[in-house]
Amino acid sequence: MISVPELIVFDLDGTLADTIEDIAVSVNRVLSRFGLPQYDSTTYKHMVGDGFRVLIERCLPPATLRDEALFAQVFEGAMNEYTAHCLEKTQPFPGMLATLEALSKKGIPQAVLSNKPDDMSKLIVQSLFKDISFVAVWGNSPERPRKPDPTAVLKICSMVAARPERSLFVGDSGVDMKTARAAGMVGVGVLYGYRSREELKIAGADFFIASPEDLLSLIGVT
After folding, report:
1. CB 3.0-4.6 Å disulfide test: which of 20, 149, 203, 222 passes with 145?
2. Cα–Cα distance measured from residue 57 to residue 119, given in angstroms and rounded to the nearest whole number
3. CB of 145 within 8 A of CB of 165?
4. With bands split at pLDDT 50, 70 and 90, how would you rate the model's confidence at 197?
């Protein structure tokens, strides 16, 4: 158990919500239009985490990556498709809403920082967690560098006068743990998400949780 943190920042995909089915269906639908290979949900779990543009780069066969016109069409099409369908199967992970509510009752500031496009991040969080008062819900935006650059998360810390070393970054990928390390925060690796314990460990996770409720136990909130 560790002391009650001054701030908890959450990743979105694979941490707060299970978004992978909507991502897979939306992107595959566009790939199919162009006669390109499609992927199953398990494969997409290893493709997400670095932003939507990188996701599309990973989806396209290497031989097509130099075709800028094709990339632009697939990227725009996938963005539009996913924006229209991002809440069809997406749900909070079991126990997540109750965990966030318990943290709120304890008065612990909470925020969301994702590499998903900013408007999509806000739409999903506002739809699934409308009763949680996050101090910030930030996705990928030209206004700030994406994770693992610590700039955005340190800005969130400063917004609530939280010391990074007394704050948690909770996420399911190596990108999230690298963000925590770069910011001087405590990295909490999520084992119910999309990446392996080994990836999280190598990236510097300080603690691991197997369920959202484990976060409450970790910080002594009942």
Report:
1. 149
2. 21
3. no
4. very high
**Same structural domain for residues 206 and 120?**
yes
Q: Is 11 a catalytic residue?
A: yes
**Would you say residue 141 lies in a domain?**
yes
For residues 70 and 46, state if they share a domain: yes
- Contact status, residue 173 vs residue 49, Cβ threshold 8 Å: yes
How do beta strands 17-18 and 91-92 pair? Answer: antiparallel
- CA–CA dist 135, 103 (Å, integer): 13
Whether residue 142 is found in the same domain as residue 36? no
135 neighbors 156 (Cβ within 8 angstroms): yes
State how far the Cα of 173 lies from the Cα of 114, in Å rounded to an integer.
11
Name the active-site residue from 11, 13, 22, 172: 11
